[in-house]
Fold this sequence. Notes:
Its main location: membrane. It comes from Parus major (Great tit). One of its GO terms (cellular component) is MHC class I protein complex. The structure is a single chain. The protein is an alpha+beta fold. It has 2 helices and 3 strands, in the order βββαα. A 3-stranded antiparallel sheet has the order 1-2-3. A hairpin with a 2-residue loop joins strand 1 (about 10-15) and strand 2. The longest helix is centred in the C-terminal third of the chain and has 23 residues, at about 45-70. The chain is elongated and about 40 Å long.
Amino acid sequence: DNGSVHGSSRYRYDRRDFISFKLRYKSFVMANNAAEITRRRWEEKGTVAEGRENYLKHICPEWLRKYVGYG
C-alpha cells in the first residue's frame, strides 16, 4: 500500500443515480441531463468539490481505520 486514496461520492434522487464526484479527476459527473443545473451550481460555488475531496482523502480513510480497528 502506497497510501494513495481513490474514491468517489455518488448522489441519488428518487432511487436513481443523479450526480457523482470523481476524486481522480476532481470533478462532478452527471448521470443524466437533469443533474446539469446542480453540477453547474456546485462547480461555480467551488467549495462543494473541495469538501468532497477533503472527505474522500482525509475523513473517510480516518473513519475506516478507526472502525476497522474496533474489530
